[in-house]
Amino acid sequence: MVDLAYYPGCSLHASSELYDHQSKRVLGELGFALRELADWNCCGATSAGKSDDFLAVALPARNLGIAEQSGISELVIPCSACYSRTLVAQKRLENDPALRDEINSELAAKTGGGIKVSSILEVLAPLVKSGKLAALATRKLSGLRPACYYGCMLTRFPCEVPVPDDVENPQGMELILAELGVEAVDWCYKTDCCGASASVNDQETALALMAKIMRDAVARGANCLVTTCPMCQLNLDAYQDLFCQKHGICERLPVYFITELIGVSLGMAPEELKIDRHFIDAVTLLKETNPA
């Protein structure tokens, strides 16, 4: 087993608890042991960046220090917002030694930049290249036509950071799905914003953004969406009936986490992965297209 430091962030301990469960279960089957950071704190997500620039760096810096203290060389962060905020903070600290020293002066676990910060797709990419994922995913999936939805935070950053995928047309999920026997549809909205937390304070705008994403996915022939971002998944799943009714969209599409389709391909039942906890039914399509 390969040890990975693991930062779940707030969403994976609350509204997207099933994603936390899946990440540990699926990556465990693929040979990774996730070591959750002790006493981790909220990274600040988008809120800190809007209100306090110092706090937006200091919050993830504390988590980085804890991760570095663990002695593990790589930190995996499934949440796109947490991943973005942590990677950007690490870069800011690298480029501003005075800021790093100021923040470290208040931290028990200092951060020096000595750990790789990875998204869940970065962790999975070597398994695709080596053929290990294809070898382990013995139950090839059929009948799925997913639109891979990356959202606006996984590949787009406010500063130069090492992004391991094409910024405008990322392919990480498509390559993973191909190893599972699934061909994703080509579409236009894979990196567009779903509205994120605006679904709370500016719902009309958020619903309009979600409707555009949904409408294009349907127009391209998709029968489901796949994502890695807990906010994107929650928005497109929990608000789907509302934005579809409001914007005249008849279709309803399951919104899967990439971990769910990998897990099913590894032989796990949808219920074992908690796929039955989605707002929009996500079990029926899997059972109809891939009967046990």
What's the SSE blueprint?
Layout: E1 2-6, H1 17-29, E2 32-36, H2 45-51, H3 53-69, E3 74-76, H4 80-95, H5 97-104, E4 116-118, H6 120-130, H7 132-136, E5 146-149, H8 172-179, H9 198-201, H10 203-219, E6 224-227, H11 230-238, H12 240-246, E7 255-257, H13 258-265, H14 283-289
Parallel strand pairs: 1-2, 1-3, 3-4, 5-6, 6-7
Helix pairs in contact: 1-13, 2-3, 3-4, 4-5, 6-8, 10-12
Relevant terms:
Rossmann fold, alpha/beta, Glutathione S-transferase Yfyf (Class Pi), Chain A, domain 2, 47% helix, globular, 14 helices, 2 domains, 292 residues, 7 strands, single chain
Task: Explain what you see.
The protein has 292 residues and is α/β, with parallel strands linked by helices. The strands form 2 sheets. The chain has a 4-stranded parallel beta sheet. The protein folds into 2 domains: 2-118, Glutathione S-transferase Yfyf (Class Pi), Chain A, domain 2 (Up-down Bundle), CATH 1.20.1050; 139-289, Rossmann fold (3-Layer(aba) Sandwich), CATH 3.40.50.11810. Helix content is 47%, strand content 9%. The longest helix has 17 residues, at 53-69. Helix 1 crosses helix 13 (258-265) and helix 2 packs across helix 3 (53-69). It is globular.
